[in-house]
Amino acid sequence: MELTHAGRELMPAIDRVIASAEELLSCSGGRGLRGSLTVALPESLITYKMQPVLKAFKENAPEVRLSLQVMNCYAIYERILNGETDIAIHYDVGKYPPSFVAGELGSYPLALVASPEADEAELDFITPNQKKRICHIQNDPNALYLKLFHQYLRKKNIVLEAELEVWSIEAIKRSVMSNLGVAILPRFTVENELSLGLLREVSTGMAESRITALFAYSRGKWRSSAMELFLRLLPEFYEKW
User: Fold this and answer.
1) CA–CA dist 93, 97 (Å, integer)
2) 16 - beta bridge partners?
3) What's the predicted TM-score (pTM) here?
4) What is the DSSP letter of 116?
5) What's the pLDDT at 130?
6) CA–CA separation, 232 vs 61, rounded Å?
7) Which residues contact 49 (CB under 8 A, 6 or more apart)?
8) What does the pLDDT look like over 142-184, one tens digit per residue?
9) Do 5-107+212-237 and 108-211 have matching folds?
10) Number of other residues whose CB lies within 10 A of the CB of residue 70
11) What is the mean pLDDT of residues 113-128?
12) Where are the domains of the chain?
């Protein structure tokens, strides 16, 4: 099923009615926070950065229906611009218009990782003009950090003969530990495995490459009590895990 053209034209009005209903519910008085809140964010941030925020929000607003939309950063950016989510949390993939509030959450380096058992000859990602047999393991070809890695490979004229797509960052790490290939990831997602010697970091010329996480919401959107709470908890608990 999909909306007709007339249905799509009606959606902004329907969204306003729903928002007004949520506002009325939140003002019912004496029954705690109610209503719903929709937050869109990528897998790496919900898994490795956002858990303290989500835990604190659940403890403070157990009756709020929290909907988490996990998707690619470019899709998140489009959803918040189109009014399809209340709060967007993602890596910086484009500037926001003045009608939006955006704030930085942190800036993070990337890491190319391999198994400690990997062939040393295949782990030279500095010398240009190479064709390598090692496999590149990834989960989302449109992820920002993968685009940065592909740009680096093109600049160096380094070609990897094979690619393997798996369904999650945890699956990527397990596959790399099994010596199935290399992977580029935000370094905070592999800190534990690097410290335990389960993965090794591969030297590249991407030492200065960083990705910046931010949050955003529309200035024109009604900020419910649940949304105010989430925005208050976000900077307080974001880096605590």
Assistant:
1) 13
2) none
3) 0.85
4) T
5) 95
6) 13
7) 105, 106, 188, 213, 238, 239, 241
8) 899 999 999 999 999 999 989 999 989 999 999 999 999 999 9
9) yes
10) 14
11) 95
12) 5-107+212-237, 108-211
Q: Nearest Cα to 87, choosing from 37, 47, 42?
A: 37
Q: Which CATH architecture has domain 5-107+212-237?
A: 3-Layer(aba) Sandwich (3.40)
Query: How many H helices and E strands in the chain?
Result: 8, 9
Select from 123, 106, 117 the least CA-distant residue to 211.
106
Q: What Cα–Cα distance (Å) separates residue 61 from each residue in 31, 32, 98?
A: 11, 7, 30
pLDDT at 186 over 70: yes
Residue 136 in tokens = 């590149």
Count, residues in the chain: 241
Separation of alpha carbons 213 and 43, rounded Å: 12
Q: Name the superfamily (CATH) of residues 108-211.
A: Periplasmic binding protein-like II (3.40.190.10)
